[in-house]
Design a protein that fits this description.
binds flavin-adenine dinucleotide; six-stranded mixed sheet; 10 helices; globular; single chain; FAD/NAD(P)-binding domain
Length: 412
Amino acid sequence: MTERLLPRTADVVIVGGGILGLSVAWHLTRTGTVRVVVIERQSLASQASSRAAALLTLGRADARFTRLVQRTFAAIEELGTILGEPLPLHRYGSLSVTTTAEGRSGLQALIDGATRAGVSCETVGAADARRLVPWLAVTEDATCAFCPDDAFIDPYLLASAYGTAARTAGATIVSGTAVTGLSVASGGVSGVSTTAGTIAAPVVVIAAGAWSNLVAASLGASVPMAPVRSQYWITLPDARFPRQHPSVLLPDARTYTRPELDALLFGIREANSVSLDPRQLPDDASGYAFADDPDGTASLEEGLPALRRHLPALDDVGIRAYLTGFSTYTPDGLPAFGAAAGVRGLMFAGGCSGAGIAISGGVGLALAELALGRVPSLAIDPFRCDRFGAVDPFDPAFRARCAAARSNKRSG
Ligand SMILES: Cc1cc2nc3c(=O)[nH]c(=O)nc-3n(C[C@H](O)[C@H](O)[C@H](O)COP(=O)(O)OP(=O)(O)OC[C@H]3O[C@@H](n4cnc5c(N)ncnc54)[C@H](O)[C@@H]3O)c2cc1C
């Protein structure tokens, strides 16, 4: 990318071409009147967004969270119409199973939140749970809930669809170019410097995933989140794992599963999740191996005893792949997006706490509305960036709170 090809001015510059940046860009272009530029350092959607298990889980304790996910489902439908081909959405529902008191109250909170948002999510008996997912061992004392509208999707396809629709509607999307600094004038952001030149803009949205706090640091601004390891495994193909089964959420085993072609994908949240100082991140995190457990063996050994009780097939099915990457978590496990405190025109999209694919539509819509100076049509107050007060996102104690949020997460 040469400097000549980069616009010198824009109405909104978005830093980061992952799923959030591309969703914000598309939602902005839906208005048809703004000049939007997305700057991506690597290739589009090559970082966290292409590594997600991409469960689109509607059942959340907070109905306002569910509404962010509902907007993603609406966006998927709209994008299919715009692009002339429906996006492949794997909609087989999700089944949650627990036998603990804590799990039961968590499940009830999810059902209540879903109900408030108008989403179908109901308790089912153990026999029905076994019928829905025959490979799952469900004891008679288990409490189970089935949410038929939950789905999963190829996250790269969805991110690319946001990007293609945005570009078709006039957005400039540049990859292989890094944002190296932010400029300010009169207390407000006034543009960005990049490796291919500068762009003047009154609004800058930082959607740089695990690197967001590095981009914002020069202005003394921060988003209350930290990069935390997320990981999953994929079994060898096995006839016991058909393609069209519900996803399964097992809060007692800190595990989620979903079909992956003819195999099973399962993610385990360790008791002590690992967060990284953003300053130690490589610019390209694809293929990153964590020093404490490079191939995931230790995490798998920690999680297997609890998981085997639900998934006896693990005794004799092999593991084909292990995949890890960074999710950005906040201390309360809710996303953090919207205006940055103290710098007019600066906004963040992040802190998705393992749900950035699921809420990409809601975050994109809300930030587009904020960037245009409109009142957001979704309730976003619980997700404000300043809700924890002043935080140092590089502080190990703060990062430990973010890591704990992942370990304590029980939803999809
Ligand atoms: C193993 C795993 C499983 C997951 N499972 C799920 C799931 O089931 N459901 C779900 O909803 N979510 C899931 N997630 C979370 C989801 O992947 C993230 O929430 C989402 O991808 C975040 O998108 P993003 O755009 O913020 O980040 P990213 O995709 O990381 O995009 C940020 C982009 O910013 C770019 N960038 C950084 N610095 C600069 C700079 N200075 N200049 C220009 N560009 C820059 C980066 O190169 C990157 O492409 C999972 C994540 C992982 C790792």
